[in-house]
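Question: what's this shape?

___
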Amino acid sequence: MAPHAAPDAFTIFLLVLTVVAMLIYSLRPLPLMLVGALAGIGSRARPLQRLRELV
């Protein structure tokens, strides 16, 4: 499952960071999933590039 769950370096970094946060800080999975989703959306959106295209 690993190649499909983490296809690139950014996703692997998020995966490791999430597992470490869950183990060290005893965080619940749902908030971490939401933060990971927002990080993924933000990394794909490229807001600065879109802003340059508008100007």
The first helix runs from residue 2 to 5. The CA atoms of residues 31 and 37 lie 10 Å apart.
